[in-house]
């Protein structure tokens, strides 16, 4: 039987704390590994500050060759970090919702409801495993406001609010559900992919060069080659790709 995937809303710090409570050794190893992976970013910044603005050697290196190599690499790391920050700001921008008519919206709702085996269970998953009986009406309207209009509950106009409210009442009647009727509560958190901020962990350029170039590009290809696999170019996929991007 397939296991059910549970939603876990946990930060990096809380995850490390949970590991620490189960095993201090594993927590220490995890912390050292994360620190080692992230270390090139602060070191690059410190090195460039030392080279450009300070007359002291925070990181002393006597070899002129290593000095040049470290400076070039630190510059690349800082540029890559700036590029990552730019992409981070881009993906945080709010995407405008496509216009969907009320007829199309009702059709989508009907199709979804016809395929759902257990509506309370499905809603519980959208509300991060909150028991269905704890999901109040205003929280449900807030979730549908995200789903239909890409808005927060307080951003709905009167017409949009009434339409969603009527839909909730219809679902409640058709499926014989009892939804807590609290006009002031909207505190149950739910997943809203295009409204929630995207969590990003910045990793150094060295990490991607090691994983994508060495591990994935060289090591994995060599292992497949030694085991007798051959890389075959699928012409039909290439043709479709070329036609799509023409």
Automatic annotation (TrEMBL):
Annotated TM spans: 25-53, 65-83, 205-226
Keywords: Membrane, Transmembrane, Transmembrane helix
The UniProt record lists the keyword Transmembrane helix: yes
Name of the protein: Uncharacterized protein
UniProt source species: Rotaria magnacalcarata
Lineage: Eukaryota, Metazoa, Spiralia, Gnathifera, Rotifera
């Amino acid at each position: 039987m397939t296991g059910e995937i549970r939603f876990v809303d946990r930060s990096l710090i809380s995850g490390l704390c949970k590991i620490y409570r189960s095993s201090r050794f594993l927590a220490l190893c995890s912390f050292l590994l994360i620190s080692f992976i992230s270390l090139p970013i602060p070191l690059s910044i410190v090195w460039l500050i030392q080279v450009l603005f300070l007359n002291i050697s925070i990181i002393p290196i006597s070899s002129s060759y290593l000095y040049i190599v470290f400076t070039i690499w630190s510059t690349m790391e800082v540029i890559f970090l700036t590029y990552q920050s730019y992409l981070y700001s881009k993906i945080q921008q709010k995407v405008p919702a496509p216009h969907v008519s009320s007829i199309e919206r009702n059709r989508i709702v009907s199709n979804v409801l016809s395929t759902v085996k257990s509506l309370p269970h499905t809603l519980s998953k959208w509300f991060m495993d909150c028991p269905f009986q704890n999901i109040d009406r205003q929280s449900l309207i807030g979730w549908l406001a995200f789903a239909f209009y890409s808005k927060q509950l307080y951003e709905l106009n009167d017409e949009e609010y009434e339409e969603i409210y009527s839909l909730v009442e219809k679902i409640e009647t058709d499926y014989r559900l009892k939804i807590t009727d609290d006009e002031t509560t909207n505190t149950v958190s739910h997943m809203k992919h295009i409204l929630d901020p995207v969590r990003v962990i910045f990793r150094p350029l060295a990490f991607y060069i090691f994983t994508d170039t060495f591990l994935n590009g060289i090591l994995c290809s060599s292992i497949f080659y030694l085991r007798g696999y051959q890389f075959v170019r699928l012409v039909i996929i290439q043709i479709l790709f070329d036609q799509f991007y023409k």
